[in-house]
Each structure stands twice: as C-alpha cells, then as structure tokens.
Amino acid sequence: MADSEEQLKSELILGELKKRQRTKEVVDVEEERVKVVIFMCGVNLYAFYGRDVREILPSCAISWVPSLPEYLPGLINVRGDIESVINLRHFLGEEKDDHCKCLIAMAVRGDFHSGILIDSIEDVVDIPLSTILPPLATLNGAARDLVIGEIEYGGETISLLDIGKLAALIAL
Amino acid sequence: MSGEDDIRLELLFFSVGGVHFAVDSGQVAGIATYDGEQADDLFWFHEEMGYDGNSVSYHSPNIVTIRTGGVSSYRVIIDSMEDIAEFSQNDIRLFPPLLEVFSLRRGMWGVLPRHGRMVLLVDFKRLIREIRPDIN
Question: Domain count of chain B?
Fold first, then answer.
C-alpha cells in the first residue's frame, strides 16, 4: 500500500484535467473573434464583416440619376450626407428586384463609403476567426470576385463578402 | 469660410421625367416655348443626359438656349421651368465619388438638397464639352 504522501492517482488525473481545462480557457479567451452581419440578398444568405457596416437604413427613396450603370441605382440622403447606392444583386448574379422593399447597409472601408442594397438582415454574430474557411473552389463566377471566405450558419455555408473587393470591382 | 469667399449661384429649376435639375442662370441666353420645331442645334434633354430606354413625357416643353461662347448654337428642350432662386456654394453637395465619374460625363457636377428632393446641378458647358465637342 502506498503511503499517504504518495500522490493519489485520482489527484494526478484531476490535476492533469484541470491543467488542460485552464489551457483550453486560455486558448478560448485568446482566439480572435470577428463580428459578421448575415443578410439576405436575392434567394441566398451572405455576410459582411461587421466592422465594415456602419448602420442599416430602412428602405428609403433612392433618387435616380441619368447615365449611371445598372449597378448604381442612384443617390440617398443620409442625414444631410449624399451617398451612393450599390445594387449588390448585380454582382452576385441574383435576380433583379424592386429596390423599394430593400434595406440599405451603409458600408465604410477606408475612403470607400456607400449604401448597399440588401433584402433583409438575418443576424449579427461573433465568430472565431478560425471558423472562416477559404472560398469554395466551386463558387459560381458572379460572386467569386467578392467572396473572401465561407462561414457556417444554421447548418448552411454562407459566403463572406469583402467590401474592399466590391470597392475594387466598382473602381475598375 | 468668410462671407466674402462665398460664391452665390442663381439657379433655374426644372424637371424632366420626374428627375429634378437646376442650371446656373448665367449659362442661359433665353427660354422659349417649344412648338414642335426640329433643327440641328436643338436637342431633347433626356437624350442628351442618357436616360436610355426610359420613356419620358414632357408636359410643357420649353427650349433653353445655352450661351456657348462659340459660333455654333446649342438649344435643349426641357420641361417647363419651375423656379429661380439664389443659393450659396455652401448649400451644394458633391456627388459621391462612386457616381461622380459618371455624372461629370453628362455635365452633372453637384447635388442640391431642396424641399426633400435631390436637385442635380447641370453645367451645360461641361455637357457640351463632353458629348458635343464640335459645338464648343
């Protein structure tokens, strides 16, 4: 029989488990998380990084301007600031629809700022950065230019769109 | 900005196809009622501005004669003038950068929020330079 000073096997295991748990907690705390805004556009869900979306505006009158390309439906007045609006469906290959029912996500990234037409907001969630996967190789051509990664949401795979890529695409 | 630096503009307001525009009165040499005349120097505003396939109806068409500074004349058919008013340059907003590259090609250089509407400011001299350089 081992003497009382000898460490119990159970204590050894318990100590090891607690050590592991502490390590896991540290990992959990340190893992970088990002906020994403999940929204509907056409018949699909997409997401933007939350840091790129300043606010969501209810549907408002878009003033049409002659000679603009199809993906720029016009101007909006946001508390005295005149902002452009981008029709995201054009770039995602989604079917065209009536702008009146849409919401407008005000996107800001560096010098780029514009309203972006979306159909509805589904959710705003914090996700670990590590859960953002590279874009699917099978992604269709229209959306591929905007997608920066894929995330899981409600059992679905959702394309995470990059405002910077959208800005670059429009600037071309 | 001091009051002395403030540039003031007298603007003539009109609308075509439900879109509101204004032009600096200094560019306008005259206004006359349109009576169905056709001429080489006479253009429909919606065609000049690239309304594309959108059908546009004019309720009370008028001809605006623009000062070109050259020998050729340039006249545009618009819908009736709605108002004349003076504004400060501080009342005028820039087009958002994404749109400006397109708007300037059609002479639209600024936006004036007025009575809950967005009034697009048209510089006809810029428009002529962009789309009818032979007139300039």
Answer: 1
A146-161 average pLDDT score:
93
Kindly indicate whether the ipTM for this predicted assembly is greater than 0.95, answering yes or no.
Answer: no
Nearest to B50 among A63, A67, A81 (CB): A67
Ordered by start, the domain boundaries in chain A are 35-171
Residue B125 reports pLDDT greater than 50: yes
What gap in Å lies between CA B73 and CA B14, rounded to an integer?
21
Interface test with B, best of A77, A82, A117 (most B CBs within 10 A): A82
Of the CA atoms within 13 Å of residue B41, those in its CB half-sphere come to 15
Q: What is the CATH number of domain A35-171?
A: 2.40.50.180
H or E segment and range at residue B77: strand B74-78
Question: Rounded to an integer, what distance in angstroms lies between the CA atom of residue A58 and that of residue A51?
Answer: 19
What mean pLDDT, rounded, does chain A reach? 87
Q: Cα–Cα distance between B78 and A76 in angstroms, integer?
A: 25
* SS3 (DSSP) at A58: coil
Residue in B46, B96, B105 nearest the CB of A82: B96
Tokens of residue A78, six digits: 């946001």
In a domain, B22, yes or no: yes
Model pTM score:
0.83
Give the structural domain span for B21: 9-131
State the nearest Cα–Cα gap between A170 and chain B, in angstroms. 8
Contacts of A64 in chain B (CB under 8 A): 19
For chain B, say whether A172 makes contact (Cβ under 8 Å).
Answer: no
HEC secondary structure over A87-148: EHHHHHCCCCCCHHHCEEEEEEECCEEEEEEECEEEEEEEEEHHHCECCCCCCCHHHHCCEE
- Indicate the residue of B52, B97, B103 with minimum beta-carbon distance to A65: B103
Is position B4 within any domain?
Answer: no
Average confidence (pLDDT) over B66-78 = 88
